[in-house]
């Protein structure tokens, strides 16, 4: 009796497994055809960083170093400079004259984004970051800063 119950349990398990297989066979494919087609990202995807500007084009980063302090991989390097009347780069007292992120070390944890009080640093959707040259994995402020003025609708935009 116990033996036939075991056989029935096994048959039920196989039928259940095949049911999943057949259901997936009939459902639409979700495989990305990369690199032949563009990749679709979830909004929450953490790709390469973007340094943001405000609506007037000022850099949002005020060189407070909170992102660097929060970074567990110690891969953010900042040099701060004072804004002056003649040369105003950000809305605060200071701005980041140098802002580097070393992608050899970054683990895309997002702590820097969470720590930033001005929403100056965010994650973009750039994911093609691999390189044979480790030096090229150190991204500078110029690589990450949102261009200004913003691109027009009919101009090609680099994916971020
Ligand atoms: S995502 Fe994490 S590891 Fe990368 S720079 Fe930000 S805090 Fe550092
Ligand atoms: S990115 Fe944000 S947290 Fe980092 S230095 Fe600039 S303002 Fe501060």
CATH structural architecture of one domain:
2-Layer Sandwich
**Main sheet strand line-up:** 2-3-5
Q: How are helices and strands ordered from N to C? A: HEHEEHEEH
DSSP strand (E) fraction? Answer: 15-25%
Largest sheet: 3 strands, antiparallel
This entry's quaternary arrangement is: single chain
Average predicted local confidence, pLDDT: 92
CATH fold annotation of one domain = Alpha-Beta Plaits
Would you report the number of β strands? 5
What is the percent of helical residues?
10-25%
CATH class of one domain: Alpha Beta
Distance between the termini: 64 Å
Shape: elongated
Q: Report low-confidence residues grouped into runs of 5 or more.
A: none
| Distinct bound molecules | iron/sulfur cluster
Rounded radius of gyration (Å): 24 Å
Structural category is alpha+beta
The helix tally amounts to: 4
């Amino acid at each position: 009796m116990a033996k036939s119950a075991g056989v029935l349990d096994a048959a039920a398990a196989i039928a259940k497994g095949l049911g999943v297989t057949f259901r997936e066979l009939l459902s639409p494919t979700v495989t990305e055809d990369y690199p032949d087609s563009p990749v679709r990202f979830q909004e929450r995807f953490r790709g390469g960083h973007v340094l943001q500007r405000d609506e007037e084009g000022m850099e949002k980063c005020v060189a407070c170093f909170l992102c660097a302090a929060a970074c567990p991989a110690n891969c953010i390097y900042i040099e701060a400079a004072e804004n002056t009347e003649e040369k105003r780069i950000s809305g605060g007292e200071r701005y980041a004259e140098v802002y580097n992120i070393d992608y050899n070390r970054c683990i895309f944890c997002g702590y820097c984004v969470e720590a930033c009080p001005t929403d100056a640093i965010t994650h973009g959707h750039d994911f093609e970051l691999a390189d044979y040259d480790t030096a090229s994995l150190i991204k500078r402020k110029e690589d990450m800063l949102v261009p200004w003025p913003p691109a027009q609708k009919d101009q090609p935009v680099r994916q971020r």
